[in-house]
Amino acid sequence: MLKCSCCFCGLFLSLETSSSNLAHYSKETGDLRKRILKRKAEDFKEPPRKMVKTEIKQERVDSQRDKFKEKYTELHQFGEGGFGSVFAGYRKEDKLPVAIKHIPKQKVVLTHKDENGRHLALEVAIMLKLRAITTSSVGQSCMVVLLDWYDLDQELILVMERPMSAESLFDHLKDHKGPLKQKEAKIIMKQLVEAGIHLQHADIFHRDIKAENILIETNSEVPRVYLIDFGLSCFDNTRKFELFYGTIDHIPPEFDRHGTYSAGPTTVWQLGVLLFELLHNKMFNTSSFLQNELKIGKRLSKKCKDILTKCLNINQEERPTLEELLCHPWFS
Question: pTM score, two decimals?
Answer without folding.
Answer: 0.81
